[in-house]
Amino acid sequence: MNTIIRKSVLGIAGLAFAGGVFAGPATAHAAPSVESTPVAVAVQADKPSVDKAKLIPHGVQGTQSHVDLSDEQVANVKAIIAATKKAGMDERAAVVSIATALQESKLENLGHLGDRNDHDSQGLFQQRPSSGWGTVEQITDPEYSTMAFLKGLKQVDGWQDMPLTKAAQTVQVSAYPDHYAQWEQQAADLVAEHWNS
Q: Which of 35, 150, 133 is nearest to 85 (CA)?
């Protein structure tokens, strides 16, 4: 038994020696690779991931649409997320909000569009001053318009358990109630990307 243990110990020592010879001499200037591993882990730990199951709890409905976003549109996504957090609401509320704004304005803070305008609808959510959403200045402010949308969403009993399009439609009262559903995947992807950024 002692012979087997002795051979095993010598074999391990030989591998360690051979590894050192082939890897080259260790110097005081070389940083061990072990020290760099915790740095990568620490960076990842600073940005916790979003639970994607919470973002689309009912699965997407129908064919999904996607638009490439400009810097201004991404800034509006971040403004919606910040307002959602300020309102004390979760990631799902941000998904509903962003999907709604994608449908209403493609995340562009629209002013009055003249003949192409739907009555007096403006801003990210195409809210109407004449319907009591606020002044033109207010509804074209991304934080204000998001807070106004979320205030309406909070008043919808059970919105968390509804399909996105039904929750959005209950707040927006659109002539095209099913169109919100097509933006759920992109909205969820945007929330996953920017919620903790």
A: 150
